[in-house]
Hints:
Layout: H1 2-31, E1 33-40, H2 47-50, E2 57-61, E3 66-70, E4 75-79, E5 82-83, E6 86-87, E7 95-96, H3 105-115, E8 118-121, E9 127-132, E10 135-142, H4 150-153, E11 158-164, E12 171-178, E13 183-191, E14 198-207, E15 213-216, E16 225-229, E17 232-235, E18 252-254
Antiparallel strand pairs: 1-2, 1-10, 2-3, 3-4, 4-7, 5-6, 8-9, 9-10, 11-12, 12-13, 13-14, 14-15, 15-16, 16-17, 17-18
Amino acid sequence: MKRIILALSILGLTFAACNSTQSSMKTSASLGGTWQLNYITGQRITFDGLYPNKKPTITFDLKENKVSGNNSCNQYFGALNIDGNKINFKDSKMGMTMMVCQGQGENVYMKTLEKIDSYSISEDGKTLNFVMGDIAMMRFEKVITNAHNSKNSLDWQGTYKGIIPCADCEGIETEIVLNKDLTYAIKTKYLGKGDGKVFEEKGSFVWDKSGNNISLEGLKGRPSRFKVGENRLIQLDLEGKAISGVLAEKYVLTK
């Protein structure tokens, strides 16, 4: 009789351990993808006051074991440290782009992120809570990207080159590098004008809601929006619309 009870006890413990492991795997798997912040605790300024133009996002790449996102101004990226529902951003060795930002939203987001030690996901998989101790500090909603678009279907990273039409020169020799961490580098040279100086700028870029167009943040006084195609970037006008006319095909950079 004692042997039977002992065997049943061992079987019960094994079953519970299996359930716990499966639950942990299910939780971490549902963490994958992109989430957008919709609540952050402990601030006197309203949420919309902290983030009037763009809400922070966070993306979990479970295959590469990496985390990245946008803190409402700059891109950030680092290692993903999770163990079950435990999560640690302090040891992620976060890197970040260095654009000058207005307001306190960026600092509030990054400092709060460092305090997080666990997470939970709602049963429907649409809400992510970041927790410190037993206090929910941040809440995110899942960004659903079911449709195929340039962002999730194309190998868009790389170097694009071409000569863009110019009103008062022979053309603008342009090179744009798009990186996986959503940063860019652009080089331009005005042909047949001046001393042939090459102008270089760096920054971060963002995708629009369609996932087909990008905006190079930080560029002023010139077009900064591009449609992303198969191995090419198509420059858009200042309003983000397609350029038409006989020179339209000239506004294309290729890999």
